[in-house]
Design a protein that fits this description.
The protein is mainly α and about 110 residues long. Helices cover about 55% and strands about 0% of the residues. It has one domain. Helix 1 runs antiparallel to helix 2, helix 1 packs across helix 3 and helix 2 crosses helix 3. The model has no long low-confidence stretch (mean pLDDT about 80).
């Protein structure tokens, strides 16, 4: 699964012409292990009060998390390549605007 996520992260950066691949790629194995083997989450009930929450504070690495969430089906992979996604991502990262982060599904 990590190889798929790595390819998707690199594709996102290529299409968006922005992003930090080093941080994201260094986090892929951890995020895959958490979302596929440890965290309690359910695609059908993303707002379940009993689900686990994962706060990922390694800002420039968050592309790996978005890609894993898309792999799970929380949103379409095609969303990751749209300009709207990149605008939200950069506003959130550069200004630490929580309101912008809330516009990205599941976060």
């Amino acid at each position: 699964m990590s190889k798929i996520i790595i390819a998707d992260v690199l594709e996102m950066i290529r299409v968006g012409k922005k992003g930090h691949f080093g941080g994201s790629l260094s986090s892929v194995d951890l995020i895959v292990a958490l979302y596929f083997y440890k965290l309690n989450h359910n695609l059908k009930y993303p707002n379940d009060s009993h689900r686990d929450r994962f706060i990922f504070s390694k800002g420039h690495s968050v592309l790996a998390q978005y890609t894993v969430l898309a792999e799970w089906g929380y949103f379409f992979k095609s969303e990751l390549k749209k300009p709207r996604f990149w605008v939200l991502y950069y506003r959130a990262i550069q200004k630490s605007e929580l309101q912008e982060l809330k516009k990205i599904p599941v976060l």
